[in-house]
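REQUEST ID: PR-0412
SUBMITTED BY: lab tech R.K.
PRIORITY: routine
TASK: structure prediction, single protein chain
INPUT:
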Amino acid sequence: MPESRPRALAQDVKLREVWAWSMYDFANSGYTTVVITAVFNAFFVAAVAGNAHWATFAWTAALSVSYLAVLISAPLLGAWADAHAAKKRLLLAATAGCVVFTALLYFASPSTLVLTIACVIVSNFFFATGENLIAAFLPELADSRAMGRVSGWGWSFGYLGGIVALGLCLAYVFWARAQGHEAAQYVPVTMLITAALFVLSATPTFLWLRERARPQAVEVTGALHEAWARVHQTIRHAQEFRDLRRFLLCIVFYQAGIMAVIALAAIYAQQAMKFTTVQTMILVFAVNFFAAAGAFGFGYLQDRIGHMRAMALVLSGWIVMIGLAYVAVDALLFWIAAILAGICMGSAQAAGRAIVGYLAPPARLAEFFGLWGLAVKTASIFGPLTYGLVTWIFHGNHRLGILAVGAYFVVGLVLLIGIDIERGRRAALGER
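STATUS: complete
OUTPUT:
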């Protein structure tokens, strides 16, 4: 984030504040990397659920329940945050919830299966809610011409946070294995490491990130009624934002594929490619490194070549990655697919958030990023569930599972056609 590029930031924004905002991506990525992607998901299937035929489906179902809760609540929380200038207060509550229930995963075992599933659902709900809220600060911090660049800074910091969290956990796992500990002993401890790092890394966000919004006058009394009234108004005037609406539909499909890869990467590596726990952690460590590079570098490319061309390039890369993973029978080709997935993952996340920020009305940022969260969480429900159902129906065939979710990237690429990004920006600014 060099100071030689001041135009990337809004007029009253200092570099320290953008760093503090980025640090939240750094903080919460430890959760998604260690719990959802690299360590706990495979541990849940193999140890907590005992490799039962329903284990992968149970994991995806738990995530889907949490995302359904976010889907229902996100627009309401966003509308309420806009009306009361409360993004930062809600972000603090979501952070505390995620940290507490992540720490409770320390008690995961076959005898606490129900408690474990409940903690996964609740911790992931708070994680996803916080993700929506932190994204809503982006248009307040970045110049409208540099959304991709600044969004990329945040995502790249996020993947670096995943690397740090996974690196600390991996160091502990190596030490624990040297002491003769089994996975049932050392995996729960990684949950405590992840929770502690979340608290430490998110602290700068709450110290230096400013709440610039001002409370808005509302005609309907009661917080829930206020939120529903604002959401209803957004839906009623949706035709004014047809390009944003089409892009949100595009997000639903391509994010379905991304969320399936995130939620099931370690499971696929261990079940289809026969990787060990340590090999899988090293693989995801490398993937996060390339994702950080992709998020940081692609933001600059996006600002240079345009939002739509950039997103089309990313989705094409995802389609190639799925094909490579499907045909891979040796570790080398799977590593190539994984590295490509990392680059595309960071690029897609940064590019998508920037496009929503570019198309969202400035006075209703939290609400429209709530709709962005709604699109992402809708995808998060049926993306992993598709994989889980295919593996359940076809008796654990994980290759068919990855091929099935690849279709979502194809549909997303098709939907991208027809979006006029500048027409959408004019609509957001109230111009004709």
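NOTES: The longest helix spans residues 147-178.
REVIEWED BY: pending
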